[in-house]
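Aim 2 progress update. The chain analyzed this quarter is reproduced below.
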Amino acid sequence: MTRKNTFKQLIALFLCVTMIAQILPARVHAAEVISTSDMTAAEQESLEVLGEDITRRTEDTKHFRLKGGGYVMMKYGNAVHYQDSTGQ
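Predicted structure tokens:
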């Protein structure tokens, strides 16, 4: 086998591995998915987000208050909140 053929085979192998990696499913970050298609209009309305509760923030989470009185937390894979020089 010549050096040129070896190089071509390595490139072909690399491209095959790359294409297979693109086919694999991505990692899912959601803990639970809620389907609203089976909910009544009143139940769907109770899921309306009123705003973020900034007192519950952590470095990588946000908490949102819902119209129905509950909360939903969003957890991110990296830091989304940082403290500045004033501590906020």
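The chain is about 30% helix and 15% strand. The longest strand covers residues 61-66. These observations will guide the mutagenesis experiments scheduled for the next reporting period.
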